[in-house]
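Worked example

This section walks through a single chain of length 272. The input is the sequence exactly as stored; nothing has been trimmed or padded.
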Amino acid sequence: LNCVDCLIHAVSGAVLSRVRADVSGSHRAAASVNVRMDSISDLKNLAVEANPVLGFWDPMNLIEYDQFQQGEAATVGFLRQAEIKHGRVAMAAFVGYCVQANGVYFPWKLTGDLSFSEVAAAGSPPDQWDALPSASKLQILGFVGLLEIISESTYILDLSGEKHYMRGGKPGYFPKINTWCPHPVPFEFWDPFGFTTKLTPEKKAKSLVAEVNNGRLAMLGIMGFMAESKVPGSVPALGGLIKPYAGEVMAPFSQTNIDLPFVKEMLAAGSF
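Given that input, the structure is written out below as tokens.
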């Protein structure tokens, strides 16, 4: 879902930029926020701490590419948020791929007519995604979009006493749900059991470095799985371990979803 996640991220960001301009300051929480803006030097220090051997590595010079014309701090915040978020997605994807590839599934039905065992029988994890009915895919994509809107909304972030990551907020921060949701929920989406609240600032900083490193490794891992499934032998260490996949790994929809508008035409035109 990385490509879909990036698309939703871009679209929701553009929409929410307009929403942010319209939100009145009277609706924001009165809690004081420790606004801090990271710099290139901060990013370089983090890079050395995360990997002293490699250090700061930016071959495309993204750090000096002011994509949004909002300055250095906003660029650093955007890049850090992107890496942390996609690292988290990759960690979930890597574990999910391993679980699904080994035939582990829920022992009940996915829908009234389709069981998880039937989805698992479709083949490799990408084949299993292709086998999902349209309603299931739309729910997943809709949930991803909802998370994007929540994490990008300045109004919702303010209610949690935090700023947007391009405005001095903490990269990787996910706002609380109960501060704005009309229906109370028993657990927050991020850290539902409050484990991080008991950590010292030093321990949190160390855990963040570990998360960044694990996320980077997971991104390499899941892309290795995808490469080996599409081009057998491209990752020698995975030879014979990954089932080949004949579909398109970047396509969110397949023949199973021709009931959706325009999907049939897109498949015929080779868009997916």
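What to look for: Confidence is low (pLDDT under 50) at residues 1-35.
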